[in-house]
Amino acid sequence: MARGKFISLEGIEGVGKSTQVPAIAALLDARGIATRCTREPGGTELAERIRDLLLARTAPAMNSQTELLLMLAARVDHVAVVIEPALARGEWVVCDRFTDATYAYQGGGRGLPLADIETYERLALHGFAPDYTLLFDAPVEIALARATRRGASDRFEAEHRDFFTRARAVYLQRAASNPGRIKIIDASVPLAAVEAQVRTLINAIDA
User: Fold this and answer.
1) pLDDT, tens digit, for every residue of 73-92?
2) What's the rounded Cα separation, in Å, for the pair 115 and 150?
3) Which of 3, 86, 134, 179 is deepest in the core (most CB within 10 A)?
4) In this predicted model, what pLDDT tens digit does every residue of 179-202 receive, in sequence order?
5) Contact call for residues 68 and 111 (beta carbons, < 8 A)
6) In which order are the strands placed within the sheet that holds 35-39?
């Protein structure tokens, strides 16, 4: 059986990437492709518990290095328990965030050295990475206005505009450095236009 493909969705808060997860699953299902949808941090019982620690606004103060290592711990469990077995079964995995988010949020947002994150990533994942990444991009003002309309925010959503400006810049830098893997979706346009971009890119991936 052919190994499945791993697709990650990335972007700052409010760009609408999570909305597209079921839409992508439906596109793949229409092509007869078995799909597993998941998210980060999370995806396993252990990783979801770590997610609760990372996102809760009532959690104790956490330094950036601790946050980074918790993210990676959740990711190692997620890959071992969910993602790798699904890919081995021939399923395609659609994941709401993956390693690019760590570079953007803990690197760009928190200011941790990107070289350090790369070292930790290599030790934790041994080169494991998505086959394709859709980066949903919109100006910070637009994205945060949308996120605010959603209501209650978690610890990351509550960050200031400058945090997301830095995170977005790192996302775009990574897209420029990895054009074969990372494809930018203009998320500032109406939903129908976003869906059209997603549909074109997903349908272009060979089964």
Assistant:
1) 999 999 999 999 999 999 99
2) 34
3) 134
4) 999 999 999 999 999 999 999 999
5) no
6) 35-39, 92-96, 6-10, 132-137, 182-186
